[in-house]
Design brief:
Blueprint lengths: L5 H12 L9 H13 L9 H6 L8 H5 L7 H5 L10 H6 L2 H6 L4 H7 L16 H12 L34 E11 L3 E9 L7 E10 L3 E9 L14 E3 L9 H7 L2 E7 L3 E5 L4 E5 L5 E9 L5 E12 L6 E9 L4 E2 L3 E10 L4 E9 L4 E9 L7 E5 L8 E9 L4 E10 L5 E2 L10 E7 L1
Parallel strand pairs: 8-11
Antiparallel strand pairs: 1-10, 2-5, 2-9, 3-7, 3-8, 3-10, 4-6, 4-9, 11-20, 12-19, 13-18, 14-17, 14-20, 15-16, 15-18
C-alpha cells in the first residue's frame, strides 16, 4: 500500500475540515425566507380564506409566479393598472406594484384616504413590516423584481425600526429656529378653500435653514410657504396677520389676492399631511429677513359638513459657519396647455438652465386628471434618463438625489405629464383641484 507524502496528506485533511464561507443568498430567496414565510404564509397559503379572497398564495414555490407581472384580484387596483409586483424596474415599477401600496406603512395616510377600495394594508392591523424589510423589498422591485441574482444588500434587514401612525398634534417648536402656525380655520361643506396668511417672522438677519417640519390636519390638498422676490416693493406686500381668500363661496376669484401672488418666491411646501425634510449635511436654504412668510393653505372638503384645518411649520436653522452650499429653489411651471374633453393628452415641456447646477431634490404638482408625471434629463451624458416618475397627483413623492443630478449650462429637464380628461369640458391651468397644473419644485446649488 502506498502512502501519500505527509505534506499532501495534511493539506487534504485541512481542506476537508475547513469551514465553508457562506455566500450571500439570492435576494428573492431572502424575501421568501425572511419576510413572506414568517409573516404572510399563515394567511396566504393554499385553502385559507384570505388566499381565496385575494387569489394570492405566498408559500415557497408559489409566491413568485403568483405576484410578478400578475394583475391583482382587487378590482380597484386592477382598474388603476397595477400588477401585484411590477418587473418594469425603477420608480415606475415601484409605483405600479400593488404589493408596495399594500405594505408601505410610511404611506399609510395616503393609502387610507385615497385607496379605500384597495382593502386593508398588509400585514393586517398594526403589524407593519419594519423599515429594513420595506427597503429590502423596495430595492428588489426597483431592480426589476428578478427571481435570480443578488440585487439588494442584506444589511438593510438590520434596521428594525417600525412605523407608528401618529395622530395630529401641534409640533413642539424647534430648539434653534422658529415656528409658524395657521388656524384652526373652517372649510365649508362641498368647497375648496384656498387662502394666504402673511406672517411676520421677526427675523433681524438672514437665517440658514437645514430642516423643515410641517404638520397638518386631514383634508389638505397642499400647503406652501412663500417668501417674495428680492425686488418686491413694500407697497406690493400684503398686510401681516390677515387671511386673503383666493375665491368666494360662489367661486369668484379675488383679483387682489392674485396680484400678491405675482411676486411670490417658493420656499417650501408639501401635499403630505406631515413632512419632516432634512437637507444634506453642509447644505442649507437662505431665508431672508427682508420679508415674512406667506402661508398658503388649500383644503378640499367634499363632505356635507364643515371640516377644520390647521397647520404647524417648524423652520430649523443652523449657523452660517456650518453651511458649505447655499441651496437655491426652482419651480418649473407649465401653464400653456389645453386638455380636450374625453381624451387622454400628453404634454411635454423642456426647461433649459443657463448655469451649471446640482439638483438635490424634486417633487411634482398636478391635479386629479393627471395619470403620469415624468421628468427626464435633457442633454448631456444622461440625456433621456428618467429621474422622476409618479402617478399619484394627491401625494407625489419628494425625491432626494445622492449623487446629485448635475446639469451643465444648456442642458435641462423635460417635464412629461399625461392627463385623462374624462369630463365634458376643456380643462386648462387653474387653481381648483378640478383645473390642472404641471409643476416641478426642488432645490439645487451651483
Amino acid at each position: 500500500m502506498k502512502f501519500l507524502p505527509k505534506t499532501i496528506f495534511f493539506l487534504i485533511i485541512l481542506s476537508a475540515c475547513s469551514e465553508k464561507v457562506p455566500s450571500e443568498s439570492e435576494t428573492w430567496n431572502v424575501i421568501q425566507e425572511e419576510i413572506l414565510t414568517p409573516q404572510c404564509v399563515n394567511c396566504h397559503s393554499q385553502g385559507t380564506a384570505i388566499a381565496k379572497q385575494s387569489g394570492l398564495i405566498l408559500s415557497d414555490g408559489f409566491s413568485y409566479g403568483a405576484m410578478v407581472g400578475v394583475p391583482p384580484k382587487n378590482i380597484a387596483a386592477k382598474n388603476d393598472n397595477l400588477v401585484i409586483v411590477s418587473n418594469e424596474g425603477g420608480l415606475k415599477g415601484l409605483g405600479k406594484s400593488f404589493l408596495w401600496e399594500k405594505i408601505n406603512a410610511h404611506d399609510r395616510e395616503h393609502y387610507l384616504s385615497d385607496h379605500q377600495n384597495y382593502g386593508q394594508m398588509m400585514p393586517p392591523g398594526d403589524n407593519f413590516l419594519n423599515d429594513g424589510q420595506l427597503q429590502f423589498i423596495r430595492a428588489w422591485i426597483e431592480a426589476g423584481a428578478p427571481e435570480l441574482g443578488i440585487v439588494a444588500d442584506e444589511k438593510l434587514l438590520l434596521d428594525s425600526n417600525k412605523y407608528k401612525p401618529p395622530p395630529f398634534h401641534p409640533l413642539d417648536p424647534p430648539e434653534k429656529g422658529f415656528q409658524v402656525h395657521l388656524g384652526p380655520f373652517e372649510v365649508p361643506p362641498n368647497f375648496e378653500r384656498e387662502f394666504f396668511h402673511y406672517t411676520d417672522t421677526r427675523l433681524n438677519e438672514d437665517v440658514f435653514v437645514n430642516r423643515i417640519q410641517i404638520e397638518m390636519r386631514p383634508g389638505s390638498h397642499h400647503f406652501i410657504l412663500y417668501s417674495f422676490e428680492p425686488d418686491t416693493k413694500s407697497g406690493r406686500l400684503p398686510d401681516f396677520g390677515v387671511n386673503r381668500e383666493l375665491r368666494d363661496p360662489d367661486g369668484a376669484i379675488h383679483t387682489s389676492t392674485l396680484i400678491t401672488m405675482l411676486n411670490h418666491q417658493f420656499f417650501t411646501g408639501t401635499q403630505w399631511p406631515r413632512m419632516d425634510y432634512k437637507l444634506p449635511e453642509g447644505v442649507a436654504l437662505r431665508l431672508t429677513s427682508k420679508f415674512g412668510l406667506d402661508q398658503n393653505a388649500h383644503y378640499v372638503n367634499r363632505s356635507d359638513s364643515v371640516i377644520v384645518g390647521e397647520v404647524y411649520s417648524n423652520i430649523h436653522t443652523v449657523d452660517k459657519s456650518q453651511v458649505e452650499h447655499i441651496a437655491e429653489l426652482f419651480a418649473f411651471s407649465n401653464r400653456d396647455f389645453s386638455l380636450p374633453p374625453k381624451k387622454v393628452t400628453t404634454v411635454e415641456r423642456t426647461y433649459r438652465v443657463n448655469k451649471d447646477m446640482y439638483i438635490g431634490q424634486m417633487f411634482s404638482h398636478a391635479h386629479e386628471l393627471m395619470t403620469e408625471f415624468i421628468v427626464k434629463v435633457s442633454g448631456g451624458s444622461r440625456d433621456g434618463e428618467v429621474v422622476y416618475w409618479t402617478d399619484d397627483w394627491q401625494h407625489p413623492p419628494i425625491l432626494e438625489y445622492d449623487p446629485l443630478i448635475e446639469l451643465k449650462s444648456g442642458e435641462g429637464l423635460s417635464l412629461i405629464a399625461t392627463f385623462d380628461n374624462s369630463t365634458d369640458q376643456t380643462v386648462k391651468f387653474g387653481f381648483l383641484s378640478t383645473d390642472e397644473m404641471m409643476i416641478v419644485f426642488g432645490w439645487y446649488f451651483e
